[in-house]
Amino acid sequence: MEKQEFLDKLRLALNGRVAPEVLTDTVNYYEDYINTQVRLGKSEGEVMSVLGDPRLIARTICETKGGQAGNVHAEQESGGSGEIRKTYRQVPGWVWLVLILIIVVLVLSTVFKLLSIFWPFIAVMAVVIFLMKLFRDWIN
To answer: What are the tens digits of pLDDT across the range 53-99?
Structure first.
């Protein structure tokens, strides 16, 4: 497959399924990527084989971008290996904070629930231990 055929298939597979700016950015990215790899000495055929099927790339982009959102972009790995990896936007810090607070509340509620169940046993054991120490001190 040649570069132009790859880009045309990619454009066709993305058309109408993602926002126009995502389509343009994606096609421009892959065109730049292919040109860069060719300038680095790889043949166009080698680059096309590394990239694979443009329809699969388009499907992945549509699935990860939710049809219209832009959370994922492909970027070249460092070291000029020619492989593509996906980077995902990080989850905001406030989401982690809310999740941690929910977990802490659940753990504390479980601990207090267990304490309320075992409180009579704990209280009786504390009294028995106290009386045993008192009795032992009294005998000695």
So the answer is: 999 999 988 888 755 444 444 443 344 444 444 444 567 788 889 99
Alpha carbon distance 87, 75 (integer Å): 8
Q: Which two tokens stand for residue 111?
A: 């601990």
Residue 63 near residue 95, CB atoms below 8 Å: no
Burial of 72 (0-12, 13-18, 19+ CB in 10 A): middle
Q: Is the dihedral of CA 31, 33, 38, 43 positive or negative?
A: negative
> Is residue 74 within 8 Å of 84, Cβ to Cβ?
yes
Q: Which residues contact 46 (CB under 8 A, 6 or more apart)?
A: 37, 82
91 DSSP 8-state letter: P
How far is the C-alpha of 51 from the C-alpha of 35, rounded, in Å? 13
Q: Which of 130, 17, 129, 14 is nearest to 67 (CA)?
A: 17
Mean pLDDT, residues 118-126 taken together: 91
- How far is 98 from 32, CA to CA, in rounded Å? 40
